[in-house]
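We emphasize that the prediction below concerns an isolated chain of 176 residues; any contacts that depend on oligomerization or on bound cofactors are therefore not represented. The input was used exactly as deposited, without trimming of termini.
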Amino acid sequence: MQHLRNDEARKIGVYGMVGVGKTSVAKVVNDELLNGVNNFDILEWVTISRKCSVIELQKKVVKAMNVVITEDGDETLRARMLSEILSEKGRFVLILDDVWERFSLEKVGILESSGGKLVSTSRSMDVGQNSMSSTDLLLIAKSTIKRCLGLSLVIVIVANSMRGKDNLPIWRNALV
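Result of the prediction step, given as a token string:
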């Protein structure tokens, strides 16, 4: 609950082996948000299946919110529509339970700039980790260039050392 109240925290991951109580913890958070005073306009719970495509996840989120978007198979169009709906709805908490694989929040239509928070439960730490969106990467890349004083050799060295790393805290630590 402390992380949900923190404006800096946008994504919260709960991970652990089968049966440790990840879903139970998420249900307690869900119930507390439903019954308590909170600053969120929407609270939605979505259970993910083992093989869930971006379009299937979009459908589940839309169904949970009881809204309608195009049935078109274009996930980019659907993501844009879902993003607009979330932005219009205000501050939200979206709980994704039992996530099996990493996915791009941007591809789904859940943008960090939309004022929402994401809580996900997973058996895998890799899924629960704070992976970067292209927006995150752009902000960090601009900060890195400023930090390197625009010196191309320094930028190339830093870029090579960070190649293949997609964990946001690692990138933030590299800036320090």
